[in-house]
């Protein structure tokens, strides 16, 4: 049977080139798989998971192939409309394709020994050796396995040239040809498909990201699905992004010494200068489950307890009087990714840096609880790839990610996925299953309803007329629904519930940093173990992880800037506003902006006058505190000290 694509020779040429290139990328991935096969653990990993990893690899390979082939495809398709074949153009495209993909294959070849050594796909970090090329070159020449990689690479490049040459022998002006209208229509459809393949995903919220590859519990198979050209370019672009530029606020050594003093660290046995062992009296036999709910935009200013006159959060207000309630808690930043990161991993926000865009391991709540035998699950209402959340969390010991892909399509109501109450209702069965695994569970929820586009289900009737108030009522009602359903389960009595906002809402902005955007409720609710108690000490999201571990009475390594708010007291907390940061205690706010004189306000008295001159000593102390903590976090990022254990 005659191939119908023969009528469209330019498209046939592009498709054959695609097939050849994807086959070669597959070969390199297969080589990497066999060099690291010991990491697969066939006793616990299904064959379908391995296959899915390779399928994921095809998706990333297609993205890279699409970017490089887009221009040649457009030129070839346009050329095919002319009977006179443009041989010079065709020859130019041949060398474009051969040279650029040969470079890709060089990267793919270099990626294999790089991964074998660093357990990470190729990135700009590989070029750090330029400072000492003689040493690295000698090391390569002295390592026989690198020559074993060079042999198949040479064979692949030679074969690539020969097969590509054969493909480009296709005559673009072959006849007979379909009618012009069909040629145009087919060409347009093909170009659209090509553009979709470059994006890597059809979901509107986010294109393909590194985190997309993190689909399983097997770290190696997650990484295997990545394309090293993709990771190299992504790391380069992230490094060039001014939002990710490093900060230099104070000398590193001085900052470390200051933070050690703030945290009471006199010596450390770890490779991180702030890591310290936190011991427990007696590890409980019946460990409590932990349910952590990060509430979208739930500023403390929306609660009656904090002066809101509209009775928008009757459930949260009531719950705060049945729990350990911390009334002076602040979020690290004003973005959801700040809230997720700081709550789970206890580090502050650093200006515009996005901590979850690059995969890096931390000593966090998930890792510590996993070591104590907990299962770890994250629930969200929408696409888990947004902000690279799924990939980052899976790389940091979250075993299960429940997101929009897990819910019935009929329940997805907006870009933000399903409504909050549906996520909570859906989660009950999931938590019931986890509770039957003879191990405690740790579940984190990220709500989203209190964020535009607002969606209020027909079955909820708000009292307010303003939609922004209605959605707060609905969010509060959804939380109540979850607790009501939880009370009907077997695991409720042995569960610690924690409620905190990802960030607040700028209900008012008296200062250059809107405090309502950061002031968050913090509720620890466990009727059988915690009595009603209010804490007035200053604290932040970064303190939640150590405080939970303290309430569970579990030992852990605290390699963070957070403290146990029940047992310890901090002098200040840091809040970030992208281009500036604030330092607070229970009465004063210091605003520190780049290349500007800091400003100090007594926010407790609602004073709008800068009192820096009258309180220079206090302002200096607060600025040093903020600079030191932020600089230490930056230093830890640059020096890979965010993760440590007892053996390091």
Task: Present the secondary structure layout.
Layout: H1 9-35, H2 47-79, H3 87-118, H4 133-141, H5 144-167, H6 180-199, H7 219-224, H8 228-240, H9 252-263, E1 276-278, E2 289-295, H10 314-320, E3 324-330, H11 336-345, H12 365-371, E4 375-380, H13 389-395, E5 400-402, H14 420-435, E6 441-446, H15 467-486, E7 495-501, E8 519-525, E9 533-535, E10 539-540, H16 544-552, E11 556-558, E12 573-576, E13 580-584, E14 588-593, E15 599-602, H17 616-638
Parallel strand pairs: 2-6, 2-7, 3-9, 3-10, 4-5, 4-6
Antiparallel strand pairs: 1-11, 3-8, 7-8, 12-13, 13-14, 14-15
Q: What would your notes on this structure say?
A:
This protein is of the alpha/beta class. It has two domains: 4-240, no CATH class; 253-275 and 289-638, Alkaline Phosphatase, subunit A. Helices cover 42% and strands 11% of the residues. The chain contains 17 helices and 15 strands. It has helices spanning 9-35, 47-79, 87-118, 133-141, 144-167, 180-199, 219-224, 228-240, 252-263, 314-320, 336-345, 365-371, 389-395, 420-435, 467-486, 544-552, 616-638, and strands spanning 276-278, 289-295, 324-330, 375-380, 400-402, 441-446, 495-501, 519-525, 533-535, 539-540, 556-558, 573-576, 580-584, 588-593, 599-602. Strands 2, 3, 4, 5, 6, 7, 8, 9 and 10 form a nine-stranded mixed β-sheet that branches. A four-stranded antiparallel β-sheet has the order 12-13-14-15, covered by helices on one side. α1 (9-35) runs parallel beside α3 (87-118), α1 (9-35) runs antiparallel to α5 (144-167) and α2 packs across α6. The protein is globular and about 80 Å long.
């Amino acid at each position: 049977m005659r191939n119908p694509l023969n009528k469209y020779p330019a498209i046939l040429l592009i498709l054959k080139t695609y097939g050849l290139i994807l086959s070669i990328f597959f070969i390199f991935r297969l080589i990497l798989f066999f060099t690291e096969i010991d990491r697969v653990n066939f006793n616990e990993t299904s064959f379908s998971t391995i296959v899915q990893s390779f399928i994921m690899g095809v998706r990333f390979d297609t993205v890279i192939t699409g970017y490089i082939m887009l221009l040649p495809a457009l030129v070839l398709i346009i050329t095919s409309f002319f009977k006179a074949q443009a041989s010079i153009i065709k020859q130019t495209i041949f060398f474009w394709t051969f040279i650029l993909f040969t470079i890709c294959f060089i990267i793919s070849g270099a990626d294999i020994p790089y991964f074998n050594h660093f357990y990470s796909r190729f990135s700009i970090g590989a070029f750090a050796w330029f400072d000492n090329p003689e040493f690295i070159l000698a090391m390569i020449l002295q390592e026989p396995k690198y020559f074993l990689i060079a042999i198949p690479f040479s064979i692949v490049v030679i074969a690539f040239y020969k097969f590509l040459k054969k493909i480009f022998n296709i005559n673009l002006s072959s006849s007979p040809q379909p009618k012009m209208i069909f040629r145009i229509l087919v060409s347009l459809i093909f170009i659209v498909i090509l553009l979709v393949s470059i994006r890597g995903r059809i979901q509107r919220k986010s294109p393909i990201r590194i985190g997309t590859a993190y689909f399983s519990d097997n770290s190696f198979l997650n990484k295997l699905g990545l394309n090293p050209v993709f990771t190299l370019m992504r790391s380069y672009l992230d490094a060039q992004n001014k939002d990710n530029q490093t900060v230099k606020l104070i000398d590193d050594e001085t900052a470390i010494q200051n933070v050690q003093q703030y945290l009471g660290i006199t010596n450390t046995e770890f490779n991180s200068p702030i890591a310290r062992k936190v011991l427990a009296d007696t590890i409980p036999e019946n460990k409590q489950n932990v349910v952590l709910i990060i509430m979208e935009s739930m500023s403390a200013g929306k609660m009656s307890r904090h002066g809101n006159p509209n009775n928008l959060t009757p459930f949260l207000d009531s719950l705060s009087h049945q729990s350990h309630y911390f009334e002076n808690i602040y979020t690290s930043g004003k973005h959801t990714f700040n809230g997720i990161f700081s709550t789970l991993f206890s580090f502050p926000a650093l200006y515009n840096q996005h901590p979850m865009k690059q995969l890096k391991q931390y000593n966090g709540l998930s890792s510590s609880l996993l070591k104590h035998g907990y299962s770890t699950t994250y629930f969200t209402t929408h696409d888990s790839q947004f902000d690279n959340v799924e990939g980052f969390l899976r790389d940091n010991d979250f075993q299960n990610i429940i997101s929009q892909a897990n819910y019935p399509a009929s329940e997805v109501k907006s870009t933000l996925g399903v409504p909050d109450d549906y996520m909570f209702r859906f989660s009950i069965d999931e938590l019931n299953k986890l509770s039957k695994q003879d191990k405690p569970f740790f579940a984190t929820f990220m709500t989203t309803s209190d964020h535009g586009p607002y969606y209020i289900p027909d079955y909820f009737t708000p009292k307010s007329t303003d939609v922004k108030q209605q959605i707060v009522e609905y969010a509060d009602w959804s939380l109540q629904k979850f607790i009501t359903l939880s009370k009907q389960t077997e695991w409720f009595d042995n569960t610690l519930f924690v409620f905190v906002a990802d960030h607040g809402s700028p209900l008012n902005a008296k200062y250059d940093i809107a405090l309502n955007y950061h002031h968050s409720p913090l509720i620890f609710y466990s009727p059988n173990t915690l009595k009603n108690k209010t804490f007035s000490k200053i604290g932040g999201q970064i303190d939640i992880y150590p405080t939970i571990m303290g309430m569970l009475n579990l030992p852990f390594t605290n390699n963070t800037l957070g403290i146990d708010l029940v047992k310890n007291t901090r002098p200040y907390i840091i809040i970030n506003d992208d281009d500036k940061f604030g330092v607070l205690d229970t009465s004063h706010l210091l605003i520190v902006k780049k290349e500007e004189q800091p400003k100090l306000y007594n926010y407790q008295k609602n004073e709008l006058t800068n009192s820096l001159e009258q309180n220079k000593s206090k302002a200096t102390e607060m600025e040093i505190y903020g600079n030191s903590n932020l600089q230490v976090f930056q230093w830890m990022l640059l020096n890979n000290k965010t993760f440590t254990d007892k053996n390091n």
